[in-house]
Design a protein that fits this description.
This protein has a domain of about 140 residues: Lipopolysaccharide (LPS) transport protein A like domain (lipopolysaccharide transport protein A fold). Helices cover about 5% and strands about 50% of the residues. It is built from five helices and 44 strands. The strands form two sheets. It has a 42-stranded antiparallel β-sheet that branches. Strand 24 and strand 25 form a beta hairpin. The longest helix has 19 residues. The N terminus is likely disordered.
Length: about 600
């Protein structure tokens, strides 16, 4: 504290000494001097004054030598030793305060920077110029205007206030408070600021913009916009020439055209392909709806999320499920030769007979309308409109490592995931698994398709498997096959078809008790789902079945090969897969122990016994 007082005292002493050492204004030369009667004022023609290595010249002046002041008129020129030159029509100068008040067509020239205004106060000692009635600075190709301005010749810094506008070859800047350096050509923002590019805009309330290299750094309430896309973050950096942006913490990327919201804590944006790479708490929100128009968003997260815009022609070709009517399958079956292997005999009441599913010749016409809607799978490529190959752009999203999906009635996980707005298909790769309506589904590859923002269908390719159980039961209904095709109704799984070496285990129940197990092999199996459970199972194309009473089931017969059951891997909420969404824990408030009420007896502490 003593050191600070000493330093402060020395500064005051230096200031007093400097104030005492005021150099007088010297009249260096003139064309003519006229004395004024009864006053100590000289009228000087073509005067040149000098003070502290600076010169002040004009067409004429009234010089008060006693007061160390003068007023100059016409072609006023102030030249300082650092090279700064000031021009004006009128000048009032006080040699004691070294304050110059310039009026009309004022210009301050400092290297490649020129400040223009109609009224300016200029301090010859500090070399600071001030205007409050509007002014302009031209610095190379940059033009800055504002209502109030302060120019510092020593540092070449300019401070602007109110209605600040900066025009550069690449951008137009509008700000409330701004600092600009005419040497580095960098603008610094201290208030609401908008930067307008040719096809994008930047907003911030604190940051800087290098007009020479077209680079911006933002640190408060930041927003970048390009068409339907926007990017926000606690800290933003953007290189307009390279079209490269970087965002840190609380990143939100929104594309209103595609209805996508991408969030995280570290992101990189590339303008050329409109791509965004996000890590650290990265997640994306896809808008989905039900038949009741209720919005039920799909939450997707992974270690790394990458989204970009591509031409539709560059979308990887995908084989998807194409419908085929059950009636056609029945005709093929009837035309095929009888199988030599007879199906095992089982109790009729324990089996959904194929006769219930296969229409007889007499009632085919009556049932055809209902069966036309039943579907099975046939692999085919997605048709693409050739007229749109070169013009249509679509957005795609790639999720790498530990991809998780949460929807209120469907959850999924995979090592990687790919979603395209071109076909609205979510592709899940490497050990994908899906949970819905009490069932778990898995295969080598899973496809989920949306139509009109609603879950429409899903496809499980290669080693497809579904497991279903009721509550905490250890009895698992199972179906496996080469391919599974599911169809949704009101965004809930309604039907699932298994094709190719389809096998199943299905437990029969009576009065909430299991009575037996059906084990079957069929070319095709159809499952029907209720609100939250598997409702029914049907076998098509001559199934081979075996029935086991519940007390005779061998442990080896209870599961199919490839059985997996992982309920703990199922995402239970969006907060479970995105920790940043979880609410902050409330602080535990420590309460002081209650004071005994007046009139009550305090508890007596027992005395220790003496040894």
């Amino acid at each position: 504290m003593n050191k600070l007082c000493i330093i402060f005292g020395l500064i005051l002493i230096c200031l007093r000494v400097e104030a005492q050492q005021i150099n007088r204004v010297q009249l260096v030369s003139s064309q003519k001097i006229i004395g004024m009667p009864n006053v100590d004022v000289l009228k000087v023609m073509r005067p040149v004054f000098s003070q502290d290595n600076s010169t002040l010249a004009a067409d004429s002046a009234y010089f008060n030598q006693a007061q160390n002041t003068f007023d100059a008129f016409g072609n006023v020129v102030i030249t300082q030793s650092n090279g700064t030159v000031v021009y004006a029509d009128l000048l009032n100068y006080n040699g004691n305060t070294k304050i110059a008040i310039l009026t009309n067509k004022v210009r301050l020239v400092d290297g490649d920077a020129t400040l223009s205004t109609e009224y300016m106060t200029y301090n010859m000692a500090t070399k600071v110029g001030t205007y409050t009635g509007g002014g302009k600075i031209v610095n190379g190709k940059n033009v800055l205007t504002s209502k109030n301005g302060y120019y510092f010749s020593n540092s070449r810094d300019s401070y602007f206030r109110y209605d600040v506008v900066v025009t550069s070859p690449e951008a137009l800047i509008k700000s409330d408070t701004l600092r600009y350096n005419t040497g580095s050509k960098i603008a610094y923002f201290y208030g609401p600021t908008n930067i307008y590019g040719k096809d994008d805009t930047l907003y911030t309330e604190n940051g800087d913009y290098n007009t020479q290299y077209d680079q911006a750094r933002f640190g408060k309430n930041n927003l970048y916009r390009q068409g339907s896309k926007s990017l926000t973050g606690d800290s933003l950096f953007y290189d307009r020439k390279k079209g490269l942006g970087r965002a840190v913490k609380n990143i939100i990327f929104i594309d209103t055209a595609e209805k996508i919201i991408l969030k995280g804590d570290l992101g990189i944006y590339k303008k050329s392909d409109e791509s965004t790479l996000v890590t650290k708490n990265a997640h994306v929100i896809l808008t989905a709806e039900s038949d009741s128009a209720k919005v039920d968003s799909i939450w997707l997260t992974a270690d790394t999320l990458f989204s970009k815009v591509i031409y539709r022609r560059d979308l990887p070709a995908l084989k998807v499920m194409q419908v085929k009517q059950d009636v056609d399958l029945m005709k093929e079956e009837e035309a095929a030769p009888e199988s030599k292997q007879e199906p095992a005999s089982i109790p009729k009441e324990e089996l959904k007979s194929e006769e219930k599913e296969r229409p007889r010749k007499s009632d085919k016409k009556n049932k055809k309308e209902n069966l036309d809607k039943e579907e099975t799978s046939k692999l085919t490529k997605i048709p693409i409109d050739s007229s749109q190959l070169d013009t249509t752009k679509i957005r795609v999203i790639s999720a790498y490592h530990r991809a998780r999906v949460f929807k209120s009635d469907l959850q999924a996980k995979a090592d990687s995931l790919f979603f395209s707005y071109g076909d609205s298909i979510m592709r899940c790769y490497q050990n994908p698994m899906i949970w819905t309506q009490g069932s778990q589904l898995n295969s080598d590859t899973v496809y989920l398709q949306l139509k009109n923002k609603k879950l429409h269908s899903m496809l499980l390719q290669h080693k497809a498997f579904i497991v279903n159980t009721e509550g905490d039961s250890s009895k698992f209904n199972q179906v496996k096959g080469k391919v599974m095709t599911g169809y949704f109704k009101d965004s809930k799984l309604d039907q699932l078809f298994t094709d190719g070496n389809a096998e199943s285990i299905y437990y029969a129940k009576e009065d909430s008790s299991y009575t037996g197990m059906n084990r079957s092999v069929s070319s095709r199996i159809k499952l029907l789902f209720g609100e939250k459970e598997l409702k029914d199972i049907f076998f098509i194309k001559k199934p081979e079945m075996v029935y086991f009473p519940i007390e005779e089931i061998d442990k080896d017969e209870e599961i199919l090969e490839g059985f997996i059951w992982k309920p703990k891997d199922r995402p239970v909420s969006k907060e479970a897969i995105i920790p940043s969404l979880a609410p902050s824990p409330k602080p535990i408030l420590k309460t002081a122990p209650a004071k005994p009420a007046q009139g009550t007896t305090k508890p007596i502490t027992p005395k220790k016994k003496k040894k």
